[in-house]
Inverse folding.
């Protein structure tokens, strides 16, 4: 899908990002940004990559679990995100990184 669908206002994009971040319980900002960099805007590719990593026994448990969470959460948001223009999807991913960073600074998993 080309991602040329429905436009969202900023408030809606921030809310989706906040919800995604809340569901990524043990994912750090760095793990998230690594995933975003690898996907290069291709959500389907990114989900498949995260699913492969989540089953890779050569990875340490923490990154493997983070990949599993990313795949699970984004699979739920996949249709909605794929129907957004690329720039809006990237903006949402940036907001997710900010929420994960805030959570880390607070030292808790609550946003």
């Amino acid at each position: 899908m080309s991602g040329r669908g429905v436009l969202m206002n900023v408030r809606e994009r921030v809310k989706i990002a906040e919800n995604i971040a809340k569901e990524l319980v043990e994912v750090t900002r760095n793990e998230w940004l690594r995933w975003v960099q690898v996907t290069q805007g291709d959500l389907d590719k990114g989900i498949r990559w995260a699913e492969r990593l989540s089953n890779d026994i050569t990875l340490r448990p923490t990154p493997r679990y983070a990949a599993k969470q990313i795949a699970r959460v984004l699979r739920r948001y996949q249709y909605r995100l794929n129907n957004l223009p690329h720039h809006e999807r990237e903006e949402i991913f940036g907001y997710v990184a900010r929420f994960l960073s805030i959570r880390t600074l607070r030292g808790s998993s609550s946003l």
Summary: The chain has one domain: 10-106. Residues 10-106 form one domain. Residues 61-82 form the longest helix (22 residues). The two ends are 32 Å apart (CA to CA).
